[in-house]
Amino acid sequence: MLCDPSVSAGTDAADEGRGSGKAASALNVALINLPWASFRRPSIQLGLLGAIARQGGHHVTLAHLNLELAARLGKPLYDAIAEHRSTSLGDWLFARAAFPDTAPDGAPFIERYRKILGDVLQRVDGPSLTALLAFREGGAERFLREQIAAQDWQDVQLFGLTSTFQQNTACFAMARLLKQHFPQATIVAGGANFDGEMGEEWVKAAPQIDIIVSGEGDVAFPRLLDAIGCAEPLDKVPNLIFLKDGQPHRTARLPVLRDLDSLPLPDYDEYFERAHRLGLLTSGARLDVDLPVETSRGCWWGERRHCTFCGLNGQSMAFRSKSSDRVRDEFAALTRRYRSYRLFAVDNIADMKFHKSLFPDLAEQGTSYDIFYEVKSGLLPDHLERLKAAGVSRIQPGIESLSTHVLGLMDKGVRAIANVNLLRWSAILGMDVSWNLLWGFPGEHDQDYLDQAKLARNLWHLQPPIGVSRIWLERFSPLFQRRGEDVSPPIPEASLAGVYPNAVDLSRAAYFFEYDLETDVSSESYAALSEVSGEWKEQWSSSRLPRLDFHYSPGFLQIDDLRDPSREGVFTYEGDAAEIYRAMTRIPRTVEQLLADSKAPSDRMDIIIDEFCALGLAMRDGEQLLALALPYRREGRRA
Fold it and tell me: 2 and 226 in contact (C-beta within 8 Å)?
């Protein structure tokens, strides 16, 4: 709640220069989303914090200015830059606008990454590298100045900026220009890029930002607004970082919010108004925009065994979720309000309790949602069937590897055979799967990747990985935290040196790092897996999709192998062999389980299984076995 308006504003060393100096009142607040956030969905950070601030009596406007740049550059080019990860291209483009006098010269970045950047631009028929450099040296700042001039912000007392991934320099640049135009306004920034010591370094490197909210802002941000409105000391507000006596000062850390049901619905009105005005959305049914929804925070798996390479939830791992009733009502309210049934869950992992409540309820209601969720790898067919019935048609499981040994090094808690079965059942159910293969873990072996390459050739009928790449060393990940004294300290990701001034201590500010983890795996072994995965993707880009189907009737089974044009075939099995194969088509089974359900003697069983595996019709993972073929469907399938 706001303080008594009769309380006059005072000054305090902790908030000197950050208040308006007027009697306390509701604040005029503008929350801004900048490049390179995706233009394909509104910002849940803005939508949620805006709604929370309004509940507190403040006057809030939102501005998805990333849409303006997407309209100017065109969707393909904007997408290519926003989704690019191998260099800090997005931040490089706004570096001069953020640090006009101290940003590194732009030409060396172009020269060092000429091939990578050229490939990015060529894929979207984009501008020349010279044009990119020109945008960095002047176009980026002109773009931001134009946006400021186009907004009615004369009465705004507090600007809020959010930064995740490559939004940092756009955020810093906008803060600098806002200070020039509205020197009495308070500039606040928040987002994942300010967690931990990163926030402390950035508040020094970008003093145009008055206050950083480091951590969850659901409670801290409205308390900050009330403190500024009442001219109270900022030391009383949790989760803040600001300069005090020239040094970063951090206030008390607030425990994570547990009652997620208490949060309001996010407000996406401004996003849709702006997107329509700019012509970024198709007319008619809204099939090209996702509505971000949040049903949980943290990671229940990470609470048990933090995946070694993952830096997410660095300071907020504790898992919390909304009630099923609240989620169900929220889905309905958002789809009614925004006329879109495409829902994008921003959760790091779906709550397993939803399989007994939310998902069956949505299926029973007969809803028509098209939902995206990140899910635990190795889900059972029962789980996937519930997801599909509820409208979850797009999933991102943390598969990451098809080697049980490497998955163990990751602390994934799942075997490769379970990941393969998830891919099988996603194909059977018609679910789109977004997944990757990663390498670069201490303790891995050449054989881990040679075996994966061999297995991958048998999986071409399943949705291929998006890519195969070395892991990024992320701040807050166990691999980053467990560095021993005998290991050289990690180096901030190389391209960052071409973005930020020398005065920035990137060892404190960076999220991604270079590393030299001990491994004896040869580059040829990694290349073998990459090559097979590339061929796999090529097969899926052709007009004729690879298939491996089985047809079954009691005592007879036929497998049509159409995975690879060079080795197509038809295999038929009768009697025991037919029943054994069919027994492996739902979940992985052990030989003992198969023997218990079959009349075949053990030596006959071994011969049959060896043949299935030799032909690539089944896989073996330790004691477990799994059929790879999918049940035949006349209409075919594409996940």
Answer: yes
Cα 13 to Cα 143: distance, rounded to the nearest angstrom: 35
The Cα 122–Cα 246 span in angstroms is: 46
Question: What is the H or E stretch that residue 551 is in?
Answer: strand 547-553
pTM for the model stands at 0.93
Spatial separation of the C-alpha atoms in residues 226 and 590, rounded to whole Å: 62
pLDDT tens string 167-219: 999 999 999 999 999 999 999 999 999 999 999 999 999 999 999 999 999 99
User: What is the C-alpha to C-alpha distance for residues 348 and 296, in angstroms, rounded to an integer?
Assistant: 8
To which residue do tokens 């007879």 refer?
A: 556
Phi, psi of 478 (to 5 degrees): -55, -35
Cβ contact 458:616 at 8 Å:
yes
Which pLDDT score, from 0 to 100, does residue 10 have?
32
Q: Say if residues 224 and 32 touch (Cβ distance below 8 Å).
A: no
d(CA 88, CA 498): 9
Q: What DSSP designation does 136 have?
A: I
CA 439, CA 69: separation in Å to the nearest integer?
35
What contacts 415, CB < 8 A, 6 or more positions away? 378, 404, 407, 588, 621, 622, 624
- If you search the block for the tokens 């949505």, which residue do you land on? 362
The total of other beta-carbon atoms located within 10 Å of residue 267's CB is 20
Locate 164 and state its tokens. 């995740």
